[in-house]
TrEMBL record:
GO terms for molecular function: glycosyltransferase activity. Keywords: Glycosyltransferase, Transferase. Belongs to the glycosyltransferase 2 family. This is Glycosyl transferase, family 2. PANTHER family: GALACTOFURANOSYLTRANSFERASE GLFT2, RHAMNOSYLTRANSFERASE WBBL. It comes from the Bacteria. InterPro entries: Nucleotide-diphossugar_trans.
Length: 746
């Protein structure tokens, strides 16, 4: 312990520009006390009395008659079953005024002012109903407030608290929103904050409900011993309460439909200076860490961050470093939590947002877990997901947990097909751990996603959990007890084997082995594996594999009535997928020089400029586009579509779309990988750059041959590749899997 304090002190001398030696000694003493923190049991609360259904509102008020005058009419109009005002040392005759004006309101009077925790605990002790709403006297509620808070308890199992959306008067900076999160950011930033919610966001998980506008499960509130009265005179007690509830697996959520206007610090600012309030906040935050954070490694990290922040801010903010040793020595009062603290802190770090979608119907439930949103249709995987999910919505209630890179609400097209959408914002990292798993698997390994998935499973109780893409297989165990399906959009180690054959390197050879080990192990951990082709199904083998091929929307993608542009080629493939870049490099470098008077249109997907392409795409005749939301006009203009892939796994949806549009295609074997197509009838197969250039010139010149292939291509997809047919097979798989008895481990 001593060496750790010594090394940290050495760091402090270099970085704490404003600190003096006295502060450094306090800092070192606080660190040492934190390392020596003991753990002891919290006293058991008394048995909770029986309660009747309904809501008890508890309002602490100190000299707040004017605030109550404005607040109470709105509360009374909502008709909660019980209202208790804790008259907390008031000198404005609050109690007498209440008895005369609102005789039905119960008054708990304290001649001397109490802390917030002591005041509300006196009100909680008198609560007779199943739910308790703690409401500050400077909160003005909007109609439907209690109903919106109460609804959350019907939707979320084991819910501890539901907290309101907090607005501020016009012209006042919004300091709270209701969405409370905790994340370590900059060294001088207080780790707990309120985030702005996104349009349509409702039901997102929060670390705690604001003690000034939240509804609590009364039995759970009493099981925690009420509000901890160590937090004098106010602040952090609600954080502590919510944290201790999460430790027991009792979540808190944000209820966007419950709205209050907060006249911020209308009470506290009358009795304390800004400097005093700042010190109160800092001391109570240290108390919270020492008393309630159970995991030793987590406590040490949070404690050190807190003390470093106080040291750095010592020159311009209250720095109660002197209090830290005594606070740490009081020890932790919590037993080992039932729910891992690292998990629920990740869930509540600001990266997770929940959005209600279409109304649930009571039909069987399917959870979809995906590394990407199924809309917009920016890549083949999204096209597949969207088309099958849209059709499944008629028979199943579906919920989505998906990663996103953007801080934005999901598009309407997604909300229209899911009952709920949970988005987890993913931050890229260049420092991935070496764990013996593929890099992509590590990139998508997220405690926030894992916790969001676990909570969504608890909330919705899905019969089926469908894991899209290989890297999401790592979350199969988090979907229990749902039956699990892994959708292999491609056999990833097969793709890497092809890349290795083209360019053998040590790192690539290592990725092949990592993917083979991870992927084959994943197949044994799910109930079914869905592949895109019979070829891939045979690779998986075993009774758990089933082929559900890719398809095409035959109504959306139809042959054009107008003639195409003359001698115009089209290639569609996101540069985010390495085989598409290799295809472009092959075609532009080896085939393009053999062609004359031809236009090549490349649709390379979003952020295509981020990907290195070893080919000159700026030369005359080449048109390069990024993401295109509707590719049908590009197909209509094209005389031919090309698929010059040199490596591929899974199947290429763009091939099927081109065929449905009635386009003749020139493709390599990799370009039509996994598709049961007849070369020479449905498309033209080539092996070399010379063959591809010759086939393109022949079809550009021979309209009759081109028309024959166009008609055959459309007929083939009509027969075998309709999304409607594939969706029906997927629904049958769901029904079959839901009806199977669950295997019980020996």
């Amino acid at each position: 312990m001593a060496w750790r304090a010594k090394n940290t002190l050495r760091w402090s001398v270099r970085t704490a520009r404003r600190a003096d030696w006295g502060l450094l000694r306090q800092y070192a003493a606080g660190l040492l006390a934190g390392d020596l923190r003991a753990q002891r049991a919290r006293p058991a609360p008394p048995a909770a009395p029986p309660t009747a259904p309904g809501i008890t509102v508890v309002i602490p008020s100190r000299d707040g008659k004017d605030l109550l005058t404005a607040q109470l009419p709105g509360i009374v109009a909502e008709r909660p079953e019980q209202i208790i005002v804790v008259d907390n040392g008031s000198a404005d005759d609050t109690a007498g005024w209440l008895r005369a004006t609102y005789p039905a309101i119960e008054v708990e009077h304290s001649p001397a002012p109490l802390s917030f925790a002591r005041a509300v605990n006196r009100g909680i002790a008198r609560a007779r109903h199943s739910h308790v709403c703690l409401l500050n006297n400077d909160m003005q509620i909007e109609p439907g407030f209690f109903r919106a808070l109460r609804r959350s308890f019907d939707e979320v199992p084991e819910l501890f608290s539901s907290t309101a959306q907090i607005l501020f008067p016009a012209g006042v900076r919004r300091e709270e929103t209701g969405k409370t999160v905790m994340a370590l950011r900059g060294p001088e930033d207080f780790p707990v904050r309120c985030d702005e919610t996104l349009p349509g966001e409702d039901g997102s998980y929060v670390l705690y409900g604001s003690g000034g506008c939240s509804l609590y499960d009364a039995a759970k509130l009493r099981a925690l011993g009420g509000v901890d009265e160590v937090y004098e005179p106010a602040y952090v007690e609600d954080l502590d309460l919510g944290y201790r509830a999460w430790q027991r697996g009792w979540p808190s959520v944000y209820a966007g439909g419950a709205v209050v206007e907060h006249r911020h610090r209308a009470t506290t600012s009358r009795f304390f200076t800004e400097e005093e309030l700042g010190r109160i906040l800092e001391v109570n935050y240290l108390r919270f860490l020492a008393r309630s954070v159970s995991d030793r490694a987590l406590f040490r990290r949070l404690w050190r961050h807190a003390l470093r922040r106080l040291l750095l801010r010592a020159g311009h903010a209250p720095a109660p470093l002197d209090a830290a040793p005594a606070i740490a020595r009081q020890g932790c009062l919590e037993p080992a939590p039932a729910y891992r603290e690292e998990l629920f802190l990740a869930l509540n770090d600001g990266s997770v947002s929940v959005f209600p979608g279409r109304r649930a119907t009571g039909k069987p439930r399917v959870l979809v877990a995906s590394p990407y949103l199924p809309f917009p249709l920016s890549h083949g995987g999204a096209v597949r997901m969207y088309n099958l999910i849209r059709r499944a919505a008629a028979e199943f209630d579906q919920v989505l947990v998906a990663f996103t890179e953007d801080h934005a609400a999901p598009p309407a097209e997604v909300l229209d097909i899911f009952a709920e959408v949970v988005l987890v914002r993913r931050a890229g990292s260049h420092a991935l751990p070496l764990t013996g798993r593929p890099e992509v698997v590590e990139e998508f390994d997220s405690n926030a996603f894992r916790a969001a998935l676990q909570q969504t499973v608890l909330k919705w109780r899905p019969a089926i959990a469908q894991l899209e893409f290989t890297q999401i297989a790592q979350y199969a165990a988090d979907c229990a007890p749902a039956r699990t399906i892994l959708v292999e959009h491609d056999i990833t180690f097969d793709l890497y084997q092809q890349l290795l054959a083209l360019n053998e390197t040590g790192p690539l050879r290592r990725e092949v082995e990592l993917w083979r080990s991870f992927e084959m192990a994943a197949w044994s951990k799910v109930d079914r594996v869905v592949t895109m082709s019979e070829k891939d199904r045979r690779t998986v083998a075993g009774a758990t594999a089933v082929a559900l091929p890719n398809g095409v929307d035959l109504e959306r993608f139809r042959p054009a009535d107008s003639a195409p542009d003359a001698r115009r080629l089209l290639f569609i493939g996101s540069f985010a997928h390495r085989p598409n870049v290799m295809a472009v490099e092959f075609f532009v470098n080896q085939v393009w020089p053999r062609l004359k008077d031809v236009t090549l249109h490349i649709i390379a997907g979003a952020r295509h400029e981020q990907y290195a392409v070893e080919a000159d795409l700026r030369q005359p005749g080449i048109e390069l586009a990024g993401f295109v939301s509707d590719v049908r006009p590009a197909y209509r203009r094209a005389t031919l579509v090309i698929a010059p892939l040199v490596a591929s796994a899974g199947t290429n949806i763009k091939v099927l779309e081109a065929m449905a549009m009635g386009k003749a295609m020139v493709a390599t074997a990799a370009g039509v990988n996994g598709l049961d197509l007849a070369a020479g009838e449905d498309f033209v197969l080539v092996k070399t750059a010379d063959e591809m250039a010759g086939a393109i010139e022949r079809l550009l010149s021979d309209e009759g041959e081109r028309t024959r292939i166009e008609l055959a291509a459309r007929a083939r997809v009509e027969r075998d590749y309709s999304w409607d047919t594939i969706a029906a097979a997927q629904a049958e798989l769901y029904r079959e899997l839901d009806g199977e008895p669950e295997e019980i481990a020996p």
